[in-house]
Amino acid sequence: MRDVTGRLMLLDTASLYFRAYFGVPESIRAPDGTPVNAVRGLLDFIDRLVKDHRPDLLVACMDADWRPAWRVELIPSYKAHRVAVERTGGPDEEEVPDTLSPQVPVIESVLDAVGIARVGVAGYEADDVIGTFTARASGPVDIVTGDRDLYQLVDDARMIRVLYPVKGVGTLQATDEAALREKYGVDGPGYADLALLRGDPSDGLPGVPGIGEKTAARLLAEFGDLAGIMAAVDDPKAKLTPSQRRRLDEARPYLAVAPKVVRVAADVPLPDVDTALPRAPRDPAALEELAARWGLGGSLQRLLTTLGA
Questions:
Q1: How far apart are CA 10 and CA 5, in angstroms?
Q2: Do the beta carbons of residue 207 and residue 77 sit within 8 Å?
Q3: Residues contacting residue 4 through CB under 8 Å, at least 6 positions apart
Q4: Whose CA is closest to 119, among 19, 10, 276, 8?
Q5: What share of the chain is helix, strand, coil (3-state, %, to 5)?
């Protein structure tokens, strides 16, 4: 992988095109009547991000495997409720709205023709790709995602923050360590411990029964991290209620594997890609054809104008 030394922006692409799909009317269609609301919404979003934040480097991170087998082996319920079709020879098929699925290949083709680096790695989620790019970056990093799991990467000392869409794709909340402490009482790494203790129904993570978000935050404030909490369970003098001690003790099998599932990977074998913000389309002819075929109109033109500015 090439050195990442400028201001890097990492897009949690699926998270963003889901937001675009639900935030832009399905009446936005190609000339043949096919909905392209997710395509155009994502292009408008990228245009806004580049205008507002002027990254030097930009990567659209993809889910090559949205439910990796190595995570499912550790916690079988991981994202199980979102499986549409189980496959033995490859990634399970995720439940996706019927009119969104056909737009994903269009999104990928348009990003490639524009020249925006698009990276997905077999056996890993986009979160893991983001985690690895972040670990290797030497400059500031803006992570754009609607997934709070990535709060675990926030690090003021390394100028890593999360830009979280709070309303559609137009309003972003810049999340740094101060914002995390104010809302959750933890820093970036502490958010991963908070999440696995609390659990997350949207990801099929059971958490520790009886340990909600506020209790988890209090335990982390008192004992530092998950290891400190479990050491307290073994210490009769530690300030835990009998109920907390019992529940945490009973949850040991889950807590032994949950960190590997919840924490994003930082060692994904990334391909050698050019992450520089493109100033001109990589493949103008293909882009012209895509624009005509899918009626990308003003959304694409605005993005190209912004990139060329």
A1: 14
A2: no
A3: 57, 133, 136, 137, 138, 139, 275
A4: 10
A5: 50, 15, 35
Distance from the Cα of residue 204 to its chain's centroid: 16
Q: In what order do the strands lie in the sheet with 57-61?
A: 117-119, 57-61, 8-12, 141-144, 160-167, 171-175
Q: Which residues pair with 167 in a beta bridge?
A: 171
**Distance (Å, rounded) from C-alpha 300 to C-alpha 37?**
13
CA 78 to mean position of chain CA atoms: 16
Reference 212, options 200, 221, 224; nearest CA is 200
- Which tokens sit at 67? 């439910």
- CA atoms within 13 A of residue 52's CA, in its CB half-sphere: 15
Q: Is the dihedral of CA 28, 29, 35, 38 positive or negative?
A: negative
Q: What is the pLDDT of residues 158-186, one digit of tens each?
A: 999 999 998 766 689 999 999 999 999 99
pLDDT in tens, 122-149: 999 999 999 999 999 999 999 999 999 9
> Is 224 in contact with 194 (CB distance < 8 Å)?
no
Q: Which residue is listed with tokens 């090559």?
A: 64
